[in-house]
Specification:
binds iron/sulfur cluster
Length: 286
Amino acid sequence: MIESFKSKFVWEAKMKKYAMPIIMLVVFETVAITLWLTKNKLFYLFNFSYIGLSISLGVFLYIKKYKYARRIVQLLVGLYMLVYLGLICNENMQIEGFWYYLFTGVFEAATIHYAVAKIFGPLIFGRGWCGYACWTAMVLDFLPYKVPKEPRRKIGWIRYITFAASLIFVAALFLAHVGSLERIMFWAFIIGNILYYTTGIILAFSFKDNRAFCKYICPITVFLKPMSYFSLIRLKCDKEKCISCGKCKRVCPMNVDVTDNSRKRKNGTECILCMECVKNCPKDAL
Ligand code: SF4
Ligand code: SF4
Ligand code: SF4
């Protein structure tokens, strides 16, 4: 009797521990099956199942305390989107691709991607996209300044300029009735990525901060920041355990004041859920 009670207890503890990767898998499978059946395209089943499996694997490895869990997800998802979807399937998943599909009135490729990962998804998983899937950050995170070496600058307004520029660029193509738009979108994807990587790398070295591009230039943050403000999944600090050592803030790549539990905490909408603060907290307070 005692033995069976013990094994039930161990089983329940294990289930609780692995709940997150299971939940992630179920959420992505639900999206995959729903889109497959409603759009009648097997691609969606493959696409979202692959992304869901990659993310669940990453969360599982994180629970197992594998040091490179996040980097593995970044590479699995980022390379898939950049190389397979972008270069092989010619899908522009950048912001211009989103405007393009939006103007054509088609709920396909980039519009679905933006709806799931960057507009409505952040209401649940915040800026998880930025921590685990973005192919721009996948490269930037290899650079040497994982923790910013200089204070944050007040130039975040640049993101609104890049956001407006991408919208004006695509709107102008439509207004001018330019032909071969699909081809233009493919080249916009190539040139856009070259520009993103070049600017990102130059900024990282100039500001001694791998994520400078994310903080000041990236147009997608115009969607990501306000939506992630309401995120269901967010880090909280257990004030009973916290000894105010400040280590969490020192290791944070995004300068988030994670010990403040309010939604208005400093740089709260910048959190990319990278878990560096959690890993480094000496009191398990996060
Ligand atoms: S802020 Fe932009 S570039 Fe940075 S990780 Fe997020 S989507 Fe990618
Ligand atoms: S690292 Fe942990 S104990 Fe130190 S300030 Fe942050 S939450 Fe508190
Ligand atoms: S270190 Fe913590 S607060 Fe900072 S971005 Fe990563 S998860 Fe968010």
